[in-house]
Each structure stands twice: as structure tokens, then as C-alpha cells.
Design goal:
The structure holds two protein chains of two kinds. Helices cover 34% and strands 13% of the residues of chain A. By secondary structure, chain A is of the alpha+beta class. Chain A folds into two domains: 3-108, Ubiquitin-like (UB roll) (Roll); 118-130 and 145-244, Fumarate Reductase Iron-sulfur Protein, Chain B, domain 2 (Orthogonal Bundle). In chain A, a hairpin with an 8-residue loop joins strand 1 (3-9) and strand 2 (18-24). The chains are: A alpha+beta, B alpha+beta. At the A-B interface, helix 1, helix 2 and helix 3 of A face helix 3, helix 5, helix 6 and helix 12 of B.
């Protein structure tokens, strides 16, 4: 198949970026989207030009490194799929495909399609943990946890921190990301002692980092490659209000 | 370089009390004292993050480096199956001794008894720690932790979080690390590659790093350095490892005097989605559990181009069932992998490249129903369909073995210290616990045992005998010179200005290592590898082209620096495989097999760890650590 790419090229944070067009011919529809970019990059290097920078690593949809906008959608058109798990057969011959980085003021552009999501790390380090030193833990089975809470906590903990929720949100809110972590610990007895402090600190950091407010449009959940539920946001709000009482 | 006498420093005497006795003999530092020291940790996956968090809790100051943007992206995250622990929650007779025995036997008697026993002993504490951190392991309806069996052992000891156990454990270690970031006990340097170890008066005292975003080369002082940089499967170019997983930190340490042990011990996983075309960048593993209901076959006829459903039963070769009537499709990983290669090399392979075999669920679907198969393997079938674009309920899956773990790594003593004092290696980056073959669900266990429970004690002990220092207390100019040397190396690579893309050479290297130092090797193929690899080295230094600027975010330069080291490692792997004139575990030398084509170990001549010393010019030098088995009886594996 042949495709027409329009890719956002930007040298670094300071320089102004713009879209550049590239045409690729005879692309095997069975290769992955990132392999298609590998082919483009290989060609660009052969032509002594700079390849397109993008983040990726595991290419199995779990490390959360990859992610950019494809035709306006984070991670592209396939539901519950990271861009590394997307294949060219999701597109048609002669399609125009527009690629741009996740846009949010809290995610600075690194280069081309790569952005800096370290703001997420700062949210986690403000409270996304349970304070237990190594060796201080009690015997694992001494606290029973009901299966449904444990399963639900797992679903919240499945977030890969890719940033698609922020990119999808018209307010660039990091609410779903933050809420998933707050929820995981709210659902487990181990998270109880620090819950109040946790939710307050994490929300405060989220605000300090410049992420917008949540207006419950649900775009985050709709675009989340791991289908993290919007219920997490309701739970965060509940925990936040509880912590103020 | 002077010769080393390889002493494991493992405690003698009773195996069961060895670690406790050893721990008691180690020096400890108070938090106030520890606060005077700086430790450098390279890599923040399971091993690195857990070590950084725990050492920070003990009062040390940590500088942690990763090539990733965040510690949460380390490749530990991709581990699916689970983590073993000898908790005996299922009352099926599991014990530390039993986990120890399974691991030693699985490693085909090429690992150190005391290390493996300590690993088994520590396993239970890992689960306690992770649960306390809020890791959402699978639970039973009564609220207690669930277990499953894994990798053919006879007990149920694997703890899991769906198919995302690695993710949940890594996020647990990352959260412990994040807590220390907040306390400012750990400083994290994202997107940094380590490019050199600084050795002063024989001891590791720092590192040279490159900031991947702006290319800045800098030196950092540490009273000790811990490498937690994972394995080197990507020497094969295609593997199940993440794209940027690399050997560079380990190799640079090796060049500075750290011995590299058993480099040719690389594990090939039998059930991966096969290579489709030349653009393939990465291989994906499909859980081994599929072989419980799937039957492996190839057409009897060579170069058969018919569709699988057009090939009648009597024209199919269910080769595993034929060769191993007792174990059938459930033979261990190394055996299943090798046999798949054999039939494909014989021209019976299927798919567009001829390097695939069928994994067929037709009988399971007929006998047990599609619902049964869906319930058990539904997510794997979906994953297969997404990647291969074929419906495995209707047509057999195509699978082929792929590299996914390396047992070899930096040689370490019982304290996890390399042959360079003050330089430690933990997790997959060392060689320590898996011998010639790793059992399923043991990699996560080892990473966390090393990071949470072993290195913190042994690193503290080492530092208790060192005076805390800084760049100025060391020999003047050493740090500046190390930076200059690294800058020169980068300039040299940037200035080659050839016309070959880094990946093109990497692909060529991968093919040589896969064909000649892969699933099975022989003296001839290994000598060919030793002939071909230097040519690739030459090609690299004469022809590679790096676009852009060294001071930008330059992903091609990163790749080139890694490839350069992979090429040198590949040569060492071939040396190692050639030296070991026996077959053991994942190391299958075709000349050394039984009449039934099984691995033939030679315990009289080769019961040792092969630890190699780097020689700038000339062949690497071999040092041996002989292995002793006092608590287990040596046995030959049989699956007929």
C-alpha cells in the first residue's frame, strides 16, 4: 500500500516546528505502525537527513514509552491499542496520515514526536506509594483482601503512564492518571493509613505541574489504551472530599 | 591487568544457615554514617529501583541513572507470567529446599549452590514486601493470595497479577523509589546512558554518562557503583527484549576489568510469533502455557506450500509427540526450541519465510469446545490475531523460537560484587543464579531478591571499609580524562560518515549470532562466527553513518554506541561457546549429544563458571570458578 504522511518536525523545545510531508510506497499492510516509521527513518538516513524522533521501547504495549497523535487521536484509530501494537492494515491505500506529538503545556516537546512526561513521575513521588521500608512487611497472607477489591485495584494499577489521557483531554487534565493511582491504594487495606495525605498531595502536585481541571467529558477513558475507567475519577473526587472532612 | 583468583566468597558449611551467618558477619552503618556516602546505580528496573529504594532507606545517598524517561518504563515491565516464592500456601509440599533444587536442576548444574539457596530463601520475603507496597496480586475468594503452577514444576508456587506480573512488581519498586525521590535521598537522572566506569586505585569510584537529550558528557562520583542494566538478548538484533535494551554499561565495566561470565548462555523461548519480513523490529512472546492444549507439527514433505487445512493427518509430522512420547508437546523450552529449528533447517518449516512451525488447537477445540479454549487462552488468541492477522480458532498458529533472556552476565561473588572492588552487578546483568538455563517465573524473583534483600547488605559492608570521598579527593584529572576519552569516542563515530545505517549492521550481526551462536552451535559454526564478527566490526568503523548532531537528541548515535559493544560481546560469546566442549541447558553443542540427540553434559571437565577477562589486543583470557554440589545429586535430564 502507499501512504502519505504528514509529520510534525521540531528540532527541540525552543525552535518552532512544522509539518513535513513524506510519501511511502509499497508498504506491507502487515507491518506495525512503528516499523513503517523505521522504514521511513531508514530512508531518511540514507538520504543523509535526520530521522523522525519518537519514543518507543517494549513494542508490546506495556512500557508506556510510545504514543503520539495519529489523525488527531492518541495512539491512532484502534481501540484499546498503543501505537506500537497498531498495524498498517488499519489504514487504506493512499491514506493521508497526520502525526503530531501529544500536546499539553505540561508535556514539553523533546523533539519531533517525543515529549517529556516526567511530570507524571513528580505526581507519583508526591504520594503514589505506601511507606513501608524493605524488611518491615508483615507476612503476606496475614491481611486478607476481598477478591473484588483486589481485582479492581489491579484494573486501576494497569495504567501504563503513556499520557494519552492528557493528550485526549481538552483541558489537558491528568485526572485519570492521578485517579488510577489514588484508586489502587484506596481499594486496598494497605493504602489506608496514608490515604488522606496521598490524595491531597497528589492533587496539589497535579495542579502545580500545570495540568488542567477535569470536566468529566470522558475523552480520557475513551482513548486510554488500557481502558482505565472513569470511575477512578469519581473515586478520586470522593477520596478528596473525604480528606477535607 | 593482573590475574585474579576467582573466589566466590560463599560461606562454607550448612547451606540452610549460610546467608544468615554471612549477613551477621557483614558490617553495618548507622543512618548518620551512611548519609556521608554516595552510591551510583545504573538502571532502574526491578533490581535497580528496589536496590536504590532500600539503600536510600538505610541512609545512603543515591544517584540513579536510566536511559528511559521514567523508571517505570524499564523492560522488567514486560514480564508476563509471575514470580516464584516458596511460601507453600497450597500445602503441596513446597519448601525453600525444593525451590532451590528445581532451580539448580533447571540450570543444568551450572550455578552456585549457596547463591541459589539464598535466592529460594529470600523469595518469601519478596512477596511480603510487595503485598505491603500495594501490589495487587491475584487473590482467591477467601481473600488470600492465589498461586498457579508454571514451567513444568510439580508445585504451585507462582504468584501473579494476570499476565502483567512484571508490570505490577516494577510499579511497586518504582513507588518505593518515588518515595525516596520525595525525600531527596535519591536523585534520578532520566535519559542518561552510562558510557564508562571510573576506576581509581583499582576501585570503582564513578561513571561517565551521556545526557541523551543534549549530548552532554559528564562524570559522576560514587563511593560504590551498582549496575542493574539487564540482559543482552539484543545482540541477536531480534529478541523479545525492548528495543533499547543493551549491554553497554556491562561491557564498559568488562573493559575496565570486570570479568564476564558464561556469555554464551542465552535462553531461547519456543513460542514466539515468527519473523514476518525484513522490516521486523521486535519479537513477541506467546505464553508457554499454550503448549498444554496446542499440538506442534510441520508437513512431512519438504517445501510444502499447501495451506495447513489442506494437509491430511497422515502427511503431518507431530515431531515432539513422535520423539518424546512421554512429554510430547510439553518438553522444556530448550528442547522444544531446538527441535523446531531442526525441522525448519530440514526444509519442513512453514509460513512465508519457512522458519515457523504450526501450533494447532484443532483437537482441543473438537474435544473440549471453543469456549474452553477461549476461556483459557482468549487474550493470547486475541493478541496473536492482532499481530499475525489470522484467526487461530480456524487456522493453526505459526510459532518459532526467539531469544528472550541471558543467563550469562558480569561475574559476581556471593556479595554480588564484580572483580572490580566497589562495582556491583544485580538482576539479569549478573550471571549468578540460573546456571545454563532459567526456569519460568524466576527472573522477577532474582531481580527483587538482589535489589531488596541482598545488595543493600553487601554494599553497606563494602562501604563500611571505605572513606567517603568526592571527585576532589581522588587522583586529580581522572574524572576529566574519562570525560575526554568518551567525547573522543563519540567524535570518532560521528566522523566515520559512511553510508550504512546502524540497524543494517545490527541486523547482519544478529543473523550471524543467531545462525552460528544460537539455539545450537558447533565448533565449525563458532569458528565461522569468529571470522565474520571482526568483519562486521570493521564495517561499523568504516561505513556507519550517524545523521544529525552529537549534541542533540540523537537516537542513531545512541544505537551506534550500543551496537559497537554488542559486536565485541558477540565475539566473546563465540569464544565462550567454543571453549565449552559439552552441551548443558541452553548451550547445545551439536558434537556433544546423546544417541537420542539430547544435551550431553561433561561434569568432569566443565563443571565450572567460565569468566572471561577483556584483552584490548588478542584473545580474551579465561578464568574458572569451579562448582561444587554438596547438597544435590548430579542428574541427567530425560523427557522421553
Amino acid at each position: 500500500m502507499n501512504i502519505n504522511l504528514k509529520i510534525w518536525r521540531q528540532k527541540d523545545e525552543k525552535e518552532k516546528g512544522s509539518f513535513k510531508s513524506y510519501k511511502l510506497q509499497n508498504i506491507d499492510p502487515n507491518i506495525s505502525f512503528l516499523e513503517m516509521l523505521d522504514i521511513l527513518n531508514n530512508r531518511l538516513i540514507k538520504e543523509k537527513m535526520e530521522p523522525v524522533a519518537f519514543d518507543h521501547d517494549c513494542r508490546e504495549g506495556i512500557c508506556g514509552s510510545c504514543g503520539f497523535m495519529i489523525n488527531g487521536q492518541p495512539h491512532g484509530p484502534q481501540k484499546a491499542t498503543t501505537v506500537c501494537q497498531l498495524h498498517m492494515r488499519s489504514f487504506n491505500d493512499e491514506d493521508e496520515i497526520l502525526l503530531e506529538p501529544f500536546r499539553a503545556s505540561s508535556f514539553k516537546t523533546v523533539k519531533d514526536l517525543s515529549v517529556d512526561r516526567t511530570a507524571f513521575d513528580r505526581i507519583i513521588s508526591s504520594g503514589g506509594f505506601i511507606s513501608v521500608d524493605t524488611g518491615d512487611a508483615e507476612e503476606a497472607n496475614s491481611t486478607a483482601v476481598d477478591k473484588s477489591s483486589a481485582d479492581e485495584a489491579f484494573l486501576s494499577a494497569a495504567c501504563i503512564g503513556c499520557g494519552a489521557c492528557v493528550a485526549a483531554c481538552k483541558n489537558s487534565s491528568a485526572m485519570l492518571f492521578t485517579a488510577a493511582k489514588v484508586s489502587q491504594f484506596a481499594l486496598l487495606p494497605q493504602g489506608d493509613p496514608e490515604q488522606k495525605e496521598r490524595v491531597q498531595n497528589m492533587v496539589a502536585t497535579m495542579d502545580e505541574e500545570g495540568f488542567g481541571a477535569c470536566t468529566n467529558t470522558g475523552a480520557c477513558t475513551a482513548e486510554c489504551p488500557k481502558e482505565i475507567s472513569q470511575e477512578n475519577i469519581a473515586r478520586l473526587n470522593r477520596e478528596f472530599i473525604k480528606s477535607q472532612l | 591487568m593482573k590475574d585474579f583468583y576467582l573466589s566466590s566468597k560463599a560461606p562454607n558449611g550448612d547451606l540452610h544457615t549460610a546467608w544468615t551467618r554471612h549477613k551477621e558477619s557483614l558490617h553495618k552503618l548507622s543512618k548518620e554514617e551512611a548519609n556521608k556516602y554516595k552510591i551510583i546505580i545504573i538502571g532502574t528496573g526491578l533490581a535497580g529501583a528496589s536496590a536504590a529504594a532500600t539503600l536510600a532507606e538505610k541512609g545512603f545517598n543515591i544517584d540513579a541513572f536510566s536511559y528511559h524517561e521514567s523508571p517505570r518504563r524499564a523492560h522488567s515491565i514486560a514480564a508476563q507470567g509471575g514470580i516464584n516464592a516458596a511460601k507453600n500456601y497450597k500445602h503441596d509440599g513446597d519448601s525453600t529446599m525444593r525451590l532451590f533444587y528445581d532451580t539448580i536442576k533447571g540450570g543444568d548444574f551450572r550455578s552456585r549452590e549457596q547463591n541459589v539457596y539464598r535466592l529460594a530463601e529470600t523469595s518469601a520475603n519478596i512477596i511480603d514486601q510487595c503485598v505491603a507496597q500495594g501490589v495487587p496480586f491475584a487473590r482467591e475468594y477467601g481473600g488470600l493470595l492465589d498461586n498457579r503452577s508454571f514451567g513444568g514444576v510439580q508445585v504451585s508456587r507462582t504468584f501473579y497479577a494476570r499476565g502483567q506480573t512484571g508490570q505490577q512488581l516494577l510499579l511497586g519498586a518504582y513507588s518505593a523509589l518515588s518515595r525516596q525521590l520525595k525525600k531527596e535521598k535519591v536523585k534520578f537522572f532520566p535519559r542518561h546512558d552510562m558510557l564508562d566506569i571510573i576506576v581509581v586505585n583499582g576501585k570503582a569510584k564513578g561513571v561517565v554518562t551521556r545526557n541523551l537529550l543534549n549530548g552532554k558528557i559528564a562524570s559522576h562520583y560514587g563511593d560504590a557503583v551498582v549496575l542493574a542494566t539487564g540482559g543482552y538478548s539484543n545482540v541477536y538484533y531480534l529478541s523479545t527484549n525492548a528495543m533499547a535494551s543493551n549491554v553497554t554499561a556491562n561491557w564498559r565495566a568488562h573493559r575496565k576489568g570486570a570479568l564476564f561470565a558464561n556469555p554464551s548462555f542465552t535462553q531461547i523461548h519456543p513460542t514466539c510469533i515468527p519473523v514476518k519480513n525484513d522490516f521486523q523490529s521486535k519479537l513477541t512472546l506467546m505464553s508457554e502455557s499454550l503448549r498444554n492444549d496446542g499440538r506442534v507439527w510441520v508437513p512431512k514433505q519438504k517445501n510444502d506450500t499447501r495451506k495447513p487445512n489442506e494437509i491430511p493427518e497422515d502427511e503431518r509430522d507431530y515431531y515432539l509427540e513422535r520423539i518424546y512420547p512421554a512429554f510430547g508437546n510439553l518438553v522444556p523450552r530448550d528442547v522444544a526450541s531446538r527441535r523446531a529449528k531442526e525441522v525448519c533447517d530440514n526444509g519442513q518449516g512453514v509460513g512465508p519465510t519457512g522458519f515457523a512451525v504450526y501450533l494447532d488447537f484443532k483437537r482441543a477445540i473438537q474435544k473440549k469446545g471453543e469456549d474452553y479454549v477461549k476461556e483459557k487462552y482468549g487474550n493470547l488468541f486475541d493478541m496473536y490475531q492482532n499481530i499475525a492477522d489470522e484467526n487461530p480458532y480456524k487456522t493453526p498458529m505459526k510459532i518459532y523460537p526467539a531469544v528472550h533472556y541471558t543467563m550469562g552476565g558480569l561475574w559476581v561473588d556471593y556479595n554480588l560484587m564484580t572483580t572490580v572492588p566497589g562495582l556491583f552487578s544485580i538482576g539479569e546483568s549478573n550471571f549468578s543464579d540460573h546456571g545454563a538455563n532459567r526456569l519460568g517465573a524466576s527472573a522477577l524473583m532474582q531481580g527483587l531478591a538482589d535489589g531488596y534483600f541482598i545488595a543493600p547488605h553487601t554494599v553497606s559492608d563494602y562501604l563500611s571499609k571505605e572513606t567517603p570521598g568526592n571527585k576532589n579527593t581522588e587522583a586529580p584529572g581522572v574524572f576529566e580524562e574519562a570525560v575526554r576519552n568518551t567525547e573522543k569516542e563519540i567524535d570518532k563515530i560521528m566522523n566515520i560518515k559512511g553510508d550504512t545505517v546502524v540497524d543494517e549492521i545490527h541486523r547482519e550481526l544478529g543473523k550471524v549470532v543467531w545462525d552460528k551462536v544460537g539455539m545450537s552451535r558447533n565448533g565449525h559454526s563458532l569458528k565461522e562466527a569468529l571470522d565474520l564478527i571482526p568483519k562486521l566490526k570493521e564495517k561499523f568503523w568504516n561505513n556507519v553513518f550517524i545523521p544529525g548532531n552529537k549534541n542533540d537528541y540523537n537516537q542513531e548515535l545512541e544505537k551506534a554506541l550500543r551496537l559497537k559493544d554488542f559486536i565485541e560481546l558477540a565475539e566473546l560469546m563465540a569464544f565462550d561457546a567454543l571453549d565449552r566442549n559439552e552441551s548443558c541447558g541452553a548451550h547445545f553443542r551439536e558434537e556433544f549429544q546423546t544417541k537420542e540427540n539430547e544435551a550431553k553434559r561433561n561434569d568432569i571437565e566443565f563443571m565450572y563458571v567460565a569468566a572471561w577477562q577483556y584483552k584490548k589486543d588478542g584473545e580474551p583470557k579465561l578464568f574458572k570458578e569451579s562448582l561444587e554440589y554438596k547438597n544435590v545429586k548430579l542428574k541427567t535430564r530425560s523427557y522421553k
